[in-house]
Amino acid sequence: MLTTVVGSYPKPDYLRIPDWFTDANLAKGYKYTPADFNDFQRAADKEELEKQITRAIREVIQEQVDIGIDVITDGELRRENYVYHFCRQLDGFSFEELEKVTYRNGACTGFFPTVVSEVKPRDDSPFVVDEWKASQALTEHPVKITVPGPMTIIGTTKNRFYKDRRDLSEALVLVINREVRALADAGCKYIQIDEPVMMREPEIAEEYGIEHVSRCFERGFGLQRGFGLQRGFGLQRGFGLQRGFGLQRGFGLQRGFGLQRGFGLQHVDFLHRRCPLPHRPVIPAFSVSIEDAHCHTDLSFLSQFRRTTVVLGVVAIARSRVETVEEIRGRVREALRFLPPSRLVLAPDCGLGFLPRHVLRDKLKNMVAAAKTFQES
């Protein structure tokens, strides 16, 4: 039984890249906006910053390896966040012309970057693949890379250019697909598309969102397709074949489903809307990532996955209490009533950026310990 993490890690103190995880420290009265990164970028010594990023990624990778995580990430440490870092590499987004937006059912207000012209690659060279290569060069363990999905990019920016959201989504599919194909060509085995907004807008997801995220994977892999549509998406390419070597594509819907800390909890049970899962549009994923630790669901729906591997969230990322090994084992035993162990991967619910480092270490250690008990049995 494999283990993985979703994406983000808290940045070390010496890496001063501003990010939205800083919002967790409300005592400082700080609220992130993209303008913070603009200022940071202008003032940073780029050569020194790159050294700090490499050091931080090396440390995070080694920590995951030491804990025993099978499929690791670089902690997304070079990114301000997983969405805006991607958008900054494209033409069409303005991070100077910000617009105040109320979101998450009125629970939050923030300043979003704007779409002011055609969204397209800035040049002929894909960019995410370079990040992955730099991180993969630091370890022999497989490194998973994350890419934001179209609906999630649209949900965290303000469209001033395209006629409607669907047209903007069409443009985003093309640039995301280019990055995914470059990653696959370079040998990246674990590619995760994060699409949490899909679960907050199920009508749009069913109208075109599922089709669009599926097209992000087109011509990238030539492997079998699998079902993938549920409460929390981490759609990945790679899990479910040989240990450590299986190609996996995946959805990252775990990022944001029922998020905490005043973000406006919204439980959308997409699984049971309108029609049973097998009749929904098929997503070309080999694994899907589902949050379960934050809010347990009836895991009987897992029986509807005939070939797809499930990456199950078994430790919460929005509370500091550390789940015991036996608690995690209990949830895994329940999942194994509906899935074979070869198609179950253990993970946190979402990114780990909000957690203190010592807390996330304890959570991951217990997750790995729980997984090992099933490998030994």
CATH topology assignment: TIM Barrel
Distance between the termini: 11 Å
Proportion of residues in β-strands? 15-25%
Low-confidence stretches: 221-233, 240-248, 251-281
Level of helix content? 25-40%
Arithmetic mean of pLDDT? 84
Shape: globular
Q: In this structure, how is the largest beta sheet organized?
A: 7 strands, mixed
**How many individual β-strands?**
10
Measured on Cα atoms, how large is the radius of gyration? Answer: 19 Å
Total of helices:
10
Structure description:
By secondary structure, the chain is α/β, with parallel strands linked by helices. The chain has one domain: TIM Barrel. The chain is built from 10 helices and 10 strands. It is globular, with a radius of gyration of 19 Å. About 14% of the residues have low confidence.
Short description:
Keywords: Metal-binding, Zinc. The protein has helices at 34-43, 46-67, 84-87, 128-136, 150-155, 165-186, 197-200, 202-215, 325-335, 357-376; strands at residues 90-103, 108-121, 145-148, 158-159, 190-194, 234-237, 248-252, 287-290, 309-315, 344-348.
